[in-house]
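The material for today's practical consists of a large collection of protein records. Getting from the letters to the tokens is the skill we practise here. To make this concrete, we reproduce a full record directly below:
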Amino acid sequence: MKSIILTLILLFFTTEAFSKSFEINSEHSSIIFKTTYMKLGEVEGRFKKFKGTFDFDEKTKKVKDLFIEIDVKSIDTADKKRDRHLKQSDFFDVNKFRYVTFEGKDYLYKEGKLQKVKGFLNIKGKDHPLILNVKWKGSDQDAWDPKKMIFFFSGTTNIERQKVGLNWNKALDQGGWLVGNNVEVRFQVEANATDNRPAFSRFMKGRKKVKKSALGKAGEVIEPEVKEKVVIKKIYIKEKNNDVEVNQFERSGFIGYAATGFFSLVGLLTLAWLSRKQTAKVLEAKNYDDKKVMILADLIFCIVVFVGAVLTAPFMGYSKFLF
């Protein structure tokens, strides 16, 4: 019995050691769809907001647990009137069913590369079988941290919209229908490890240890694990047969980073102060006593500061922890 339990524990930790979770970086990915319009024309659109995750086993090179969620309210066909119609009950009915999801169940491979994902598309609360045709492009090193890997893949699928409950249409006088039934979908995906912030939210370079035999000459570069945002770069300079250790603090884009932080802080405090002042003015006009005016005005100040901090945090490198 003990040996069975030990074996199960070892299998669990072995599986966890090789399997990593990845999330789709929507900043660098896209979901685009296209269908016919008035038989001869075409209409193309995209979803601006979506997210997704999957697990990748580094030992078997296999993908599993793919899940994608699309915010239908973010639909954009470059025509606001048409977008409003697509959000209404004739099509997606976003007031009741805001999200469309896809959950992968079976993963088909050819020559070791993911080729198809069979799963279920959930639209308006109902599941429909769907196959994604995938072109697995592979992985590459993160430009900011070579120890991190980023996966890239693209693909297509076709959806018969009337089979998934998007039934609205209009007959044309000359015959045929206003909107085509077949919807062609294509997607481009960049995925980051879940413990890896996307490049746009990182301001600091990774830590490097550089050995130089003489000042100004190239040397060996070793990339250790990055654990801190503010890092120390150690440079060893051989001078008069003695090794001199020099510590230098290095920031990538320090001026831009500092300027962004400074002006964000000044702007946020200015907005909060003006909001507090305006609140106090309105309350005094309504004959509130001084104590209530002070409490409510200070409360507004704190709320503005908090909301502003939350909204600006993703641009300071904390997007993973807030959104």
The chain has five helices and 15 strands. Residues 313 and 319 are 7 Å apart (CA to CA).
